[in-house]
Structures are given as C-alpha cells and as structure tokens.
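Lab notebook, page 48
Experiment: co-folding of the full assembly
Goal: obtain a model of how the components sit together before planning crosslinking
Operator: M.T.
Materials (sequences as entered):
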Amino acid sequence: MARLNWGMVGGGEGSQIGPAHRLGAQADGNFLLAAGALDQDATRGKAYAKRLGVAEDRAYGNWQEMLEHESGRADRVDLVTVATPNATHFEITRAFLAAGFHVLCEKPMTMTVEEGEEIVALAKATGRICAVNYCYSAFPMVREMRHMVASGQIGKVRLVVVNFSHGHHGDASDADNPRVRWRYDPAMAGVSGQFADCGIHALHMASFVAGDNVSTLSADFASTVPGRVLEDDAMINFRMEGGAVGRLWTSSVAIGRQHGFDIQVFGETGGMRWASEQPNQIHYTPVGGRTQIMEKGEAGLSDEAARLSRVPIGHPEGFPLAVANIYVDIAAAIRGETHGAFPTAMDGLRSMAAVYQAVASAEANGAWVDARPPSLR
Amino acid sequence: MARLNWGMVGGGEGSQIGPAHRLGAQADGNFLLAAGALDQDATRGKAYAKRLGVAEDRAYGNWQEMLEHESGRADRVDLVTVATPNATHFEITRAFLAAGFHVLCEKPMTMTVEEGEEIVALAKATGRICAVNYCYSAFPMVREMRHMVASGQIGKVRLVVVNFSHGHHGDASDADNPRVRWRYDPAMAGVSGQFADCGIHALHMASFVAGDNVSTLSADFASTVPGRVLEDDAMINFRMEGGAVGRLWTSSVAIGRQHGFDIQVFGETGGMRWASEQPNQIHYTPVGGRTQIMEKGEAGLSDEAARLSRVPIGHPEGFPLAVANIYVDIAAAIRGETHGAFPTAMDGLRSMAAVYQAVASAEANGAWVDARPPSLR
Amino acid sequence: MARLNWGMVGGGEGSQIGPAHRLGAQADGNFLLAAGALDQDATRGKAYAKRLGVAEDRAYGNWQEMLEHESGRADRVDLVTVATPNATHFEITRAFLAAGFHVLCEKPMTMTVEEGEEIVALAKATGRICAVNYCYSAFPMVREMRHMVASGQIGKVRLVVVNFSHGHHGDASDADNPRVRWRYDPAMAGVSGQFADCGIHALHMASFVAGDNVSTLSADFASTVPGRVLEDDAMINFRMEGGAVGRLWTSSVAIGRQHGFDIQVFGETGGMRWASEQPNQIHYTPVGGRTQIMEKGEAGLSDEAARLSRVPIGHPEGFPLAVANIYVDIAAAIRGETHGAFPTAMDGLRSMAAVYQAVASAEANGAWVDARPPSLR
Amino acid sequence: MARLNWGMVGGGEGSQIGPAHRLGAQADGNFLLAAGALDQDATRGKAYAKRLGVAEDRAYGNWQEMLEHESGRADRVDLVTVATPNATHFEITRAFLAAGFHVLCEKPMTMTVEEGEEIVALAKATGRICAVNYCYSAFPMVREMRHMVASGQIGKVRLVVVNFSHGHHGDASDADNPRVRWRYDPAMAGVSGQFADCGIHALHMASFVAGDNVSTLSADFASTVPGRVLEDDAMINFRMEGGAVGRLWTSSVAIGRQHGFDIQVFGETGGMRWASEQPNQIHYTPVGGRTQIMEKGEAGLSDEAARLSRVPIGHPEGFPLAVANIYVDIAAAIRGETHGAFPTAMDGLRSMAAVYQAVASAEANGAWVDARPPSLR
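Observation: model returned without errors.
Model output:
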C-alpha cells in the first residue's frame, strides 16, 4: 500500500501542534511529508522543510506558492494540512479545496459563520474531503462510546455533561504574556476566548458521542482575570435535536486542572464517562448494575475502536495517536476504504455557529438561542 | 464532662437518617439519647425508643407530647433533633425553639421562604441554637478548605464549581416506587425536586467554603424521566457577593454516580478540589506549582480540621463522623466552648430562598434573579 | 435492648487507640463505658475516667483493682478491652479471662507463642470470648470478600497478595524520637519490628479473607535506617493449608504511603482487590470479564456486609466504624445473637507463631519454616 | 537531517510487537523501513514488506539473505531490529553485529548466560550498538525518576519495589491455547516462565531507575495453574550493589490486572512511584512533606524527560511512543549526538544471569545467590 503524499501549511519549527501532525500523519506509514510551506518566514520554512526530508523543490516559501506548484504536479499532495494562525484557516482551506485538494484544517475552521457556510458548500461542490481536527473524537474509547450510544447500549440519551477546563491561564502575573494575552483580545481572537478555544472541542465531543446535534443553547460567560475582555470561563446549557439535555463547562482559570476534558453521557439504561487524561478506559454503568471498567483493547469492542488501537490491552495510547487516528481515517477515505466518522466541515460550521450564538446568549443574560447555523435552522 | 441530654423527633425504625444522627450524637460521648418521639405510629415509636435505651416516661407518642413533658422537666433535653418528613420541619422546629430548646433540624429547614424568615427571627429572639444539618460542611477537610480560603491561601476566590449528582432515580421502571416518586411530585415535594433535595447541599457548600453568600443566580431545570413534574437535573449559574462566579450541577439521573458531591474552588493564587466519596483528601495546587495531596491528619492543618479528626493520617473517616462533627460543634456551643462554624437557620433560610428563586429563573428561561431572601436584599 | 457494660484497661488521655475504642464501643449504643483503669498514673486515669462519665467508684487506679472490684459486682462489666502497652497484654488478658470476663485485646495479644497457647487454652476452658482487635477484618467490604471466597465466587484461591506499608518511620532524623525508636529496639519491641507491628494485620487479613491458614513461610527482613536493630522492611512469602501462594510486603520506610494496607486475592475464576484508604469499594474481576466496582451498600451484598454498613451507598464509612463493627459482633456474641466472624485468641496465637517463625526464617537466609504454633502442627 | 535506513527481522503480519516497532522507528522521522525479512514464510514476508513500502529487492525471504545482501550495499541499513521468536534472538543478533550492523534486539536477548556474554563481548569488539528493547525505561517520567535518583533528590536509595503482574494467563480453560501454553513449557520457553517474560522488565526497571545493579537475590516460584511446569507467579527479593533492598513480584494469574507494571523507590529523603498504565505522572513525596503529582511536560523537568515528550502537559503519551523514544536515542547515538541511556547488551546479559540465578534459588528453597553474570562477579 503506497504512502500518500502529504503537504503541510504552517506547523513550522517551534509550533506546538506541528509535531503532533507530523507524528500523526506518518506514524502508521499512511502519509509521507512531500511538500510544505511551514513558516511565515520563507527562509526558515524552507530550511525546516528540508530538514524534515522534503525535497528542495517542494519546500515552499508560502502557501500561495505551494498551491500553484502542487496544482501543476502529477504527484501533487493527496492531502493538505492547514495548521496556520486561526485567522488564516478559512482563506487557505478555501483555496486548496477549490483547487481540488483534500484538506485537514486545524480548528477553528473559520472565524465567522458565513465563512463556515462557504467552506461547507465548497467541499460539497468539489467532492473533496474537508476534515477538521477535532482529534479527541478519534481516541478509540471515544469511538466506542459513540458506538455504544448508536447501538442502543444505554438507551435514549437523556443528558450529556462535558467539561474542558484547565488552569494554564490562571496566573494574573502571566496575563500579559503574548502567548496568553491574544486569546482574550477581540482584535486577535475574535468574539470568544475560552469557549472558542476549548469549549468547541467539548461541544463537538457531545454531538459526536451522542450522535446528535445541538439545537439550542444558553450561555454564561465570565472574565475572572482583571483586564481580560473575552471570557476565560463559560457555562453552556444546551438541548439536542433528539431532546437530550446538555451541560458544558469550560475554563482556563481552573488552577490545578491540566487538561480537564471529560464527558459523561446518561441514557435510559446506562451511563458512562471518559476523561482525556486517562483515555484508555470508559467507566460504564448499566442501570441498576455495577460500574464496569472498559479497557481499550479488550475483547468485544466495536470494529471502530478495535481498528484504532495499536497495542494490546493495558498498554496506554495517548494524544499523538488520537491525531494519528484522524489521519488513518482520512487516508482510508482517500483510498476509498472503510473508515470511521472523522469530523468534517459541517462540524466546523456548527462550532462557529455555536460560538456566535453563545456570545449572543451571554450578552442577552443567558437567553436561549438557536445554536445552529442559519442554513440548518 | 457530663453528657448532654438529647432528644429526637422522627428518625424511627427503618429511617435512613435516624441511625446517622444517633451515631453522630453519641459517638463522642457528648450526648445521650434521653427522650424521643421517633415515629408517626406512637406505639412503634415508644417501643423503639425504649429499645434504644430511653426511659419509659420519656418515650413519647408524638412531638407535642414530648414538647409538653420535656418543657416541664428540670433535666429537659439540651438539644432536640428534628428528623421528620420535610413538610413538618418548620412547625416542630418553631415549637421547640419557642419553648427554649436548642434545635438541630434536618434539611430543608422549611418549605417556604416566609417560614425560613420566621425561624431565623425566632432563633434570634430566643437566643437558642437553631442548627441545620448541612453535615458535609463538617468533614475535617471541608473545614480545612474554608480555612484556606479565609486565610488567603488561594487568594481572592474567582470561581466555585460544585456538583451533587447521583443516578439513583435514573431507572424509569422504578419511577413509580413511592420512595422515588414523591420527590418529583409538587404535592409532596414542593416547588423543586433534585435541586431542593441535593442541590442545596451543594449551594451551601459553595458558600461555606468560599466564606461568601450567593447573590444572584440563573437556573436551567430539566425533567428527563417521562412523567416527572419536578426537575431531576438542574444547572445553576451564580454570582457571589464578593464577585466570584459559581457553577452548580445536580442530577438524580446520572447513572453510575453514587454520590457525586464534589467542590472545586479556584482563586488568584491556587485551586483545590474535594469529593465526598473520598473525603479525607484535598487536591491543592498553588498557581504555577504541582498539585499536592493534603491528607486529613497531616501535620499543620488548621485547628478546625485537626479538632474534628479522630484517628491518624491514612485512616479514613466517613460520613457518619461528619454528622458527629456537627454534634461536636453544637455540644461545644451549648457548653459555651470554642467551636467551629456549623450551619444555622440563616443557612436554612438562604437555601429556601435560592430554591424559590431558581424555580422562578428556570420558569423565566434562565433569567438572572436575586438569590437572597427578601430580608437580606 | 439494654446497653452492655463496658470496661477499659489502658487507652487513657493522649492514647492513639483509646478514642477509637470508645467511639467503636459506643457508636451503635451497644456498650456504655461503666468502668476503667485508663492510665498507668492512677490519679490521671481516675480523673479521665470520670470525665468520660464513669462513676467514681468504678474509676480505678490500676487493672488489678478493677479486676478485684468488678469481679465482686452483680453489674460487672460485660466486656473488658485491653489497650495497654504491648508487653502487658498477656498478663491482663489472662487475669480477666480467668475471672470470667469477656475480653477484647489489642494486638499483639501476647509477646511469645507460649503465652498465646496459654490464652487460647484459657479462653477454651472458661468459655469466655477472647477477641483480638484485627479491626480491618471488620470493614464491610472485607467481610464481603471473605464471603465471596467462601461462596466460591472466585473459585479456589491460588494467590493472596497483601501489603501494609507506610513511610512514617522513614525520616532518619526522627529515628531517635521515643515514639519511633522503641519499635526497633528488641528490649522494648521484642523479636520483630515492622512485621510484628503492621505485618501481622496483613497476615491475618490474608487468612481471614481466604478462609485458610498460613502453613509455611519464608522471610526477608531488612533494617534500612542506620542504627535500627529490628527490621523496618520485610517480605514474607507463604503458603496456605489449602495450597494458595502468599506474598506479604510490609514497610515503615515507604515515604509517601500513609497507610498502604491492601489485599489482592486471585482465584480460579476471578480476582479482587481492596485498600484500607478507600475501604468502601472492592474491585472485582471475573475471569475473562471486566473489572467491576463493588460499592458498600449496593444491593445484593452478603448479610455480613450489609449488616455492618450504617449509611447508604456512596456515603463512605471509615476506620473508626470498622472498630465499631468489632464491638457490634462481640455484643451480638455476648447476647447470643447471630454475628460475624471476629478475630479471636486463635488468631492472636497464629500471629505470634508467624512472627517468631519469620524471625527464624530471616535469620536462616529465608529458609522455609512451619508458620504454625506448635500445638497446631 | 536525513532519515536513517532501517531493517527489520521478524515482526511480520499479525505479530504483536511488529507494529509497535514500526510506529516507534518511524514516528519521529528518524528511520525509514528500507529492508526486511519479516516472516518465517518467505513469500508472506516479502509481500508484507512490499506493502509496507520496502523496495522489491530489499524484501528478503529470510534473515541470512538479508544479512548477505545488505552487507554488500553502500546504502546498507543503519539499524537492524530483531523481533523474531525468542530462541533465535542470539543467533541473528550475533550475525548482524559481527557484520558491522547496529542492532536493536527484542528481549530476551539470549536464552543463556553464555550467549549473553558472547554478545556483550562482540558488541564491545565491533564498537556497534547493541540495544535491547526494555522500552519501559524510555517513558519520559521513568527517565525523570532516574534523573531524580542520580541527582540526589531522594537521597541514598534504601528500597525499590517493583511489580509486573497481569491476569491474562489466569484462565485454566485457556491454558492449552498455544499462545499461552508455550510460555510455561521448558522445551519452548527455557528455564523460566513469567519471570523471564515479564519479571526481567521489572528487574531492569529497578536497576535503571536506581542507577545501580542487582547483586544478590532470593526467589520463590509458583505454578498455580494445574499442568504448568514453569512458574506463573514469582517473588524475588534482592539487594543492589549500593546496599538497597529490592522486592519484585510478577504474576500472570493476577486476574483483573491488565498490565500491572509499577515501581516505587524509597530513599533517605523521599519516595516516588510510577505505573505503566498511567505513565504520564510520578507521585513524589519529600520526607515529611505532602505527595506531589509530577506531570510529564511540566516546567523544570530534566532535559532527558523534556526531550522525550512530544505534546504539552496534560496530553497523555503512551506505550508506542516509549518504544519510539528508544529509537530516538538510538538514532542520536548512530548520528553521534547527545542521547539518553538506552538499554544495551549488558542489560540483556544481566537479565539472563538473573533468570538463571532466580531459577537456581527457587530450586534451592529461596537460597540467596549471586545475581550477576560470571564475568561481573
């Protein structure tokens, strides 16, 4: 099975997410880094690409150059990953999609709902894959939870509780640190801080596992560190189309939480919970019964969970291989093989609509609003 | 140190909370059960009281009889515990207080805000103790958290997150069970189900640990099991007088959670969390530092926490001895000794106000409302 | 049900174990402290007894006086608890047993095997209860484990692994602290340090849960802190009469462990584990199945476990109420009622034999020796 | 930085460890699979190699063919991984080393001590890298523990406690399963079962973290499942050259344990523990202080730990990336760069000596024996 050619925009030296993408794309031998425009500084970007094994003529100075040259090659890259600053995702994703490339875009896919609508339409029109990196949905045991819900193992879902809270922005003395400050500055981050940064991962998780969409929501935003304009703590109550109730708490001032991303799903006949810091287990409780610890790699898991696990039960797999699982699925999709449900442009659009509507709700003292993008109301 | 005489109304044979009170009152030798009207069935109540060691002439058929006879005795009981059905708490508490007895009332102290105002006024007028059994506040490590906040160890409190969720009412096939059904029936439970039952413990905990009062709130109530009128799941966003943000989730359909009562407090310089199922530890994180596991019984805890711990570090103490700690404090108060901050009628009143205001908010689609009783606005 | 009269030798003011006994004996209303010789200092002991509610004429200056006067009373104490320094347990226990009292003795019951044989014979001859306070065996979930083994739920036991390790004697700079030093000094502690102090709790636990006796053992002792004569760390390999293999590690220099007492039992068809710091759960795994979390208070537990649990599922009970459970069982035995299997003089004898044999094995480079007292070989 | 050429012997389709090596070697872009003799069935092996991207002329039918052809190539593989059945490790490793290749051998490196001595001598003579895949030593937080010991953060090591226990061979009805049976059959597994399979990982871990060698040991072996000749449960007491005491328990019948591999190290001024199922944390306790949770990725870790972590704090990394870390270090060593302490032939030799000496000790009723290979006594 020949490796697919892979190209990367952004994710240069020193980037936090770049290494996770490279490891993810290449871990299982599905993709080979064949082209890249890795840095806003053309010289640095080209040099780094070459150190990563990219041929000289495919180490590009910027994405426009990459788009132009790759478009003309017979061995053009099969997939472009967009891992640039948030405000540029839309433009780059749109350009590569329009030129017929498959794209995996970092979240947020766009900065506005209108842009999201445009990407969804474009992906549909071109028939190209436009995936969005909600990578937590690719942990094997998250796929298992989705399967358990879909196959009725906990009955109709009544309640979904998701949290994504950390404390890494809780130090007021560090608030002027540029790596922190921009997130709470509307000029750079847009309309939302913590909810747009982490909360939409959690909201996507809720939809992904429940197999349902968020229909309405009510938000309470707070800025707890003096000087911040955008929220660093948010609570979203929501309802899903199928009637389930939702609770979502996200915070960046929860000092002591490193990566407190977890989900609990409660249905008519059972409940379960999963946490991203110990992603290899699900705690599952059938109604009236004992809590059972389900293990990644145990016998009898769904095909989806089994396929995405590389080492036996008891051997933990972590975040980088969840990213890898996104690439596994995209590679399979490109090859026309069976694959799992990776997040797409529609998920990116729904997230952006939820962000704008949550902002509107918070500004209206928690009024309940439609959470969906206009095209889906 | 002579034992104090203790009387009990309610808590008869088969009662869930009765044994916890008896153990709590007698564990440390502070109180001796001297009188009781334990059951609505006078014969059963008298017989049980005698089996518990109460003298024949102080085993009463009902609380009115107990009130009358005890009022006339020179060795009248020093404290009356009221552990009857909720709707009777007000009347009984009022009567004993008015007659000059100290009272420990089970929660909820009253069914209405007006009744709560009356009890507060009466306790003030008589100078008698009116305690309310928010017993979780008496775990040694909860007292330690309160001390840590009060002494500035985490700086100004920014955020308090409390949950009290269980799954014991999640089985729809059990929903007609009389022990479950009344809780969701307005005719029996009043205006609120799960929030009034468990949520107010959590709200009290937030105030107790933060050392602050809830000023405003916004509520989202849901009934997830068909046929229920009152809520079995609720989310309360709140603000405290000192500016802290609050989040409170309570549920009775969280299948798999046995007694998911926990609190997280985040301040300017640190965060901490505690859970009632493992009540002997606090996880504390100074900003920028590592999470530390604080243990009940470790050297250097506050007097408050040290005094309420009976066995050395590593030896767990549990719920019954938290109840006992309430009695330890009340006994000390009766004797005029130094004691910790046990919950009083004012806490009972604030809870009832919060219940009514949460109901109003939920009915008004989450509108923000004043959470305080009229007398304190 | 009238309270039983209870007497206490030792456990005076400042004693660590005294409060646990008083709480344990009185928590459930079974016993009332009626007599005591609480302190080696007669004046202090009498004064403290009176403060605890003992009548003046039953607050004794020493145990001999208590023995003499109580023997002559019609309302003599029903049970004597011996909580004096270790070296005196034998003499006092023997004296009270011989005079026809029931006795609960702190561990170790004796300092030699011969003394242990004498107590066993005396208890048999007099028909009196001689219990030994291996209180960990009275946690509800430990009783449940014993029941699970006895009823075949994990098949024939293959392997028992017990640990009892803490780090409270790990600070060399504290090694001269009198409260620590005596434990490693043969003149005061006898032939063994940590194994005799903590290890025998673990060895008893292994036998109690497996429902089997230790037949042979091999020991490795180590003194890791300079200046200590007796061991502060020990490993015991053993075999049980039914063929099960045993592993026991005990240490007092395991810095960071507070009270690392746990047990794992593995049989033909399942395994389970329990830890004393979280005593309200068992992790149980049927062969080929998932690990299940069993909760104190859940439906379907054995009568033994159900009877010893006072508050509902999810409400933790701790160490003091495990001690109380020993008293519950002894009270029932005194009253001729159904009761659980509390530890007796035979357990005390077996422990002492194991200590001496472990010492002999360790001195013989781990040679396998018979673990049983001579009378049972 | 050009990728190194990598060759693999064994690890064909369906192999358990093969995928972990391929992911490990290729995850970080250090190696590219350039040659392989992947299967005992030449046709299958060649076909699979080609599917993995190996060029036709480097997809070999057996290791001898691979050795011959690769030896003659200018672009010969830089590293050969040996992941064949245990009994063939020695022969293949020897052959490639002798021909001047660097080798990474799966454990056990050899089946006898003499073979181990030969490999050590050969690696020394040729100057080639001979690494052995004790991959658990490459978890970032294991490297951190080693660093903490080496830099004196817990003082002189007094005690090391390691366990490696699972329950996957605990089902007697599965004992004839060929994948299980061979492990307890001397004809196929050699002199030891569970100790040689898992125990030597734990013994290596003890030495690696303590930075010291095992000098003497005493073993107790047991076969708990009827019909087994070799041990399925073993306890090893040991002493290290620096005087530290060691305890090692390993079992394959611990039903409910998935991969119970953990280590506790106790020194003069602190203790710590780590478990392979939650490998991203260390629990560290300074003497007299609180337990601290150290996190992979936190600020201030050693260079060694920091370098081997790919994603930020709170993002778990797991077993496959520990294997990858071995390759990271080997690649750096091949390139002459700074690298961490990966396990070498000397570790493989020490393990084999320990296995034979443990067997001898167990047969001699736990007699203490020298644990070291003859050449190092």
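Interpretation: Chain C has a mean pLDDT of 96.
Next step: discuss with group before ordering constructs.
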